[in-house]
């Protein structure tokens, strides 16, 4: 079975902190994605990556950056956390573009 | 920007009835579509997908219909069961080659009444 693992289920961070959310997939997938999920807004794409060291902005990249140094790992970085970044963060991966994306369990981040 | 939207935020159906969840997409260049189910506390799970060269695809108890003329996607669930209660998302993939964005709609909550 494909497994996408997010490092934390719950995180509480202070305003201004630098926050790292880690995601690892074990199926040699090319594509990886970071979304945030908020009530009534669905899943919004922050960044995606289609290869090591390659990334593209999604619809809401402001305040975020990403890193993909190894194929299996895709990190989301909040440079200076703010309260409006309190959300559920979901990581996903897919082998090919026209293939299903597999999701992790999500990280619920609270910024206080 | 482009958006993928579902027509209704909540759908309530009786157990045993058929459910139809609708989705409108706006990017005519999208060529791959997926339906996901998300249960409380879990990440979205794949239900069924369809490519733009098809207009219908069937799975076990589920059917996806694609109408490219009006840019509309629907998910039909036959004989809806309590375990089908969840939030359902449609997603479209726009891109070329092996890479592209996977964009989600806002979701429809399906409530199954016993």
Number of strands of chain B: 11
Task: Count every helix of chain A, treating DSSP H or I runs of 4 or more residues as helices.
Answer: 0
Report on the biggest sheet of chain A. Answer: 7 strands, mixed
Continuous helix count of chain B: 0
Order of helices and strands of chain B: EEEEEEEEEEE
Tell me the radius of gyration of chain B: 14 Å
Rounded to the nearest angstrom, the distance between the terminal CA atoms of chain B is 40 Å
Distance between the termini of chain A: 37 Å
Mean pLDDT of chain B: 89
Classify the helix fraction of chain B into a percent range: under 10%
User: Helix and strand string of chain A, N-terminal first?
Assistant: EEEEEEEEEEE
Largest sheet of chain B: 6 strands, mixed
Q: How many β strands of chain A by DSSP?
A: 11
From the spread of the alpha carbons, the general shape of chain B counts as globular
In short:
The complex is a heterodimer of chains A (112) and B (114). By secondary structure, chain A is mainly β.
What features would you describe in this structure?
The complex is a heterodimer of chains A (112) and B (114). Helix content of chain A is 0%, strand content 57%. Chain A has no helices and 11 strands. Chain A has strands spanning 4-6, 10-13, 19-25, 31-38, 42-51, 54-57, 64-70, 73-78, 87-94, 102-103, 107-111. In chain A, the strands form 2 sheets. In chain A, strands 2, 4, 5, 6, 9, 10 and 11 form a 7-stranded mixed sheet that branches. Chain A has a 4-stranded antiparallel sheet with strand order 1-3-8-7, with no helix packed on it. The termini of chain A are far apart. The model of chain A has no long low-confidence stretch (mean pLDDT 94). Chain B has 114 residues and is mostly beta strands. Chain B is built from no helices and 11 strands. In chain B, a hairpin with a 3-residue loop joins strand 6 (56-58) and strand 7 (62-67). Chain B starts with a strand and ends with a strand. In chain B, 37% of the residues are buried. The model of chain B has no long low-confidence stretch (mean pLDDT 89). The chains are: A mainly beta (112), B mainly beta (114). Chains A and B meet through strand 4, strand 5, strand 9 and strand 10 of A and strand 4, strand 5, strand 9 and strand 10 of B.
